Amino acid sequence: MTRLALLIFICFVSPTFAQASFKKVLFLGNSITKHGPKADIDWSGNWGMAASAEAKDYVHVFTKSLTEKQGSTPEILVKNIADFERSHQGYDFAVKLKEAIDFQADLIVLAIGENVPGSKTAEEKTKLQADVTALLKTLRGDRKPTILVRSCFWANAAKDEALRGACDAVSGLFCDLSALSADKSLYGRAEREFKHAGVANHPGDKGMAAIADMLMKTLSR
Q: Nearest Cα to 148, choosing from 111, 100, 102, 178?
């Protein structure tokens, strides 16, 4: 490669991907990220809810794009932490997130918020931001992984502000998904019939692809 070609390459490659290849990626989320079979809501998958197959959920679409971008396939760990969302105060990180902490990911993708109750008052928002910040700092430890935090799929200004604040506190990258919830074609119910309204309200294949695309764009900027 000539010196000129090298300079052009450096200018056009994203700094994130130019500096390193992600070997381990941790995904922490809720049912949009991963949900096991649950007969009473007629859900039989073990992946992102409402996606038609594991390969179609945002985790796997994103991982495929990342693999193509960096030229190597990362090891991934996918965890549902909806219990943190529902009861984040006093959460025992050391016990409940031991596997995630020990995984030592060099890219952490946090996709939560939808199950967080309240967050309507300033106090609730402050507590949520503090607890999410503590979560991210615990996962980071004394390392310097890249941290990618997305806003809620079902837009909620108070929760999203708290998530952004926590992301900023650890110098992470924030992905704003707020525009997606207005597009009804992104919901599972737009693609096929579901017996349970809650499942139908999750992002379908198109919605999952949109989330993955926005996460990748945020990571690449």
A: 111
Pick left, alpha or beta for residue 70 (phi over 0 → left; psi -120 to 50 → alpha; otherwise beta). Answer: alpha
Residue type, 138: T
Q: d(Cα 67, Cα 133) in Å, to the nearest integer?
A: 28
Gyration radius from the chain CA atoms: 18
75, 44 in Cβ contact below 8 A?
A: no
Question: Which tokens belong to 201?
Answer: 């309200």
The H-or-E segment that residue 75 falls in is strand 75-80
pTM: 0.90
Over residues 75-102, the pLDDT tens digits come to 999 999 999 999 999 999 999 999 999 9
Asked if 109 and 70 touch (Cβ cutoff 8 Å), the reply is no
pLDDT tens figures, 122-139 = 899 999 999 999 999 999
